């Protein structure tokens, strides 16, 4: 009679039917889960069953006198009921079939009768059975030894049964998917001091139909002496929705720029903690807090964003921060509106009179492309935008090069060659679940040190600050120069950080500026079909170099920048690859009577290699992409907390992402898959290596350490709902018609 299995084991077997098949032993798909240490109490009831399997193996290998024999003299090869002779050797491996059913005979002792055996043989056999059962029970009742089974080829690690039960229970509860950005943790210990330790709720708001309707609240500073401020942003969403850009203002000053992840049917959640002490001069005064997250709710886009924002204030003996922060923005807080500029349509010029006791001045710039400028790094020359209109549609122009300029009184004070941010709906959404792109949750702000302009700015007059975004124009002779405009559009703001000091900045008038026009080297080659004359492929490249130096009698600031982008469109624009590199060095030097001393020195680079192909038929749409990108920053630090390095003092950041992703849709539904690896090395030796496959984190360890292979099924990931609904909105080219 076959033994009745415990109900909990039957439930475990049923749960395993939802796990992908990873290995096949004898042509039958086998579920393989790697070891996760759990309590042994759920394993005790399995001991008799496992004993029989082990016994079968030992029976096979034992001396012939202990085996039963057929009348023919051949050993009994049905020692484990239901297994053919060829299968018996694999009895210990064949545990669970693709349907989750137990293999035949798993609970039966089978036929072990021996004809003509002596009583002594039967006695030895009985001792053999008893010893096997006892030793097997002891083995599997100790969870510390359970790992032995996790690494035998093809063997199901039974310790995972409880893990699968727990994961499945979580999935059935439809919990949200935890999405995250890999970044340097912001940590502090409020209990380490008694001077100040307060947390304030800044916002708890649902952004639904919120275009033109930002959250507006009034902030009151805590009644204690603080020098360290951190914010905690937690967001949940459920349904279908685009990825959205969000900006936070204190008055007219933008202090935080972030973006959202695309939700699932079961929902998503993320938390981001940000250092905000660089804005302490604002936090110490009552402020109007404006959080602008434009969203749309209709029959298709159903996901609102529920946002909770808190601020923590402590006294940590932090570094000195700016005494005054002036906005370079549209200054619309008085009308409860966002103060961001839209470039190129807006006039970005503002004017200020700067006090005379300023000893250091730094401008930070926040700028990112949207719409036709979101994928600026994949744009083509304007003369090539119509090359593939029948397939890829009108391409976006002004080249894949962008320069953000800061002008003071119309004088070029410095430039930014922007980092190519990729939001969670871009290129292929399968890349960004649950790991979002580099800086997607916190768009960093490059800085331009304008201290050499202090003698000019402190003359008691009003002076203008202006931000421009430029691309490239090409001429018929194959040369290129900076354009006067770009496509639509860029979201831009800036800030002037002023530091007061006892040091008098000598000199008067404008600084000496060496800013020759950047050197551009371009190529392009359009290949046509010999028979039809149709355009087949376009290759193009841009290489650029720029050097800029600004000098006053007491201060020197310089930039050295290099850039390259090699682009190739094939299959009439259906496939595209761009390989881009940006490298730069920025230094600030105090000039005295003797040799100058370098006060700050920063080097950075951000490579990007992106390859994408889309396909469209009457019934299907597909997108396939690979990506490799990085961000490297090394700095010895400058005054205060940098908006670029996000820390004070020396800073090191080396992060890299790479992977592949796929999307496929038909009239009957859609599917998305992807694999992303993120390697992060930051300050204080912090390292992290994370790998995600199809929305599931499969490895998360300190970088350089080998992780145990494991399957971590993300509970509640939910049905895939693509936020962006056309190839063009995802890739920046191709049809703009909604998916099938």
Based on helices, strands and strand pairing, what is the structural class?
Answer: mainly beta
> Gyration radius, to the nearest Å?
33 Å
Q: Given the C-alpha coordinates, what overall shape results?
A: globular
Give the number of domains. Answer: 2
Helix percent band: 10-25%
Percentage of residues in strands: 35-45%
Q: What is the end-to-end distance?
A: 56 Å
Largest pleated sheet: 12 strands, antiparallel
Average residue-wise pLDDT:
80
Our count of helices gives: 9
SS elements, strand count: 34
* Low-pLDDT segments: 1-47, 63-121, 140-172, 706-718
Keywords: Membrane, Transmembrane, Transmembrane helix
Pfam families: PNGase_A_C (PF25156), PNGaseA (PF12222)
Protein name: Peptide N-acetyl-beta-D-glucosaminyl asparaginase amidase A-domain-containing protein
List keywords for this structure.
740 residues, mainly beta, 2 domains, twelve-stranded antiparallel β-sheet, five-stranded mixed β-sheet, 9 helices, 37% strand, disordered N terminus, PNGase_A, Peptide N-acetyl-beta-D-glucosaminyl asparaginase amidase A-domain-containing protein, PNGaseA_N, transmembrane helix, transmembrane
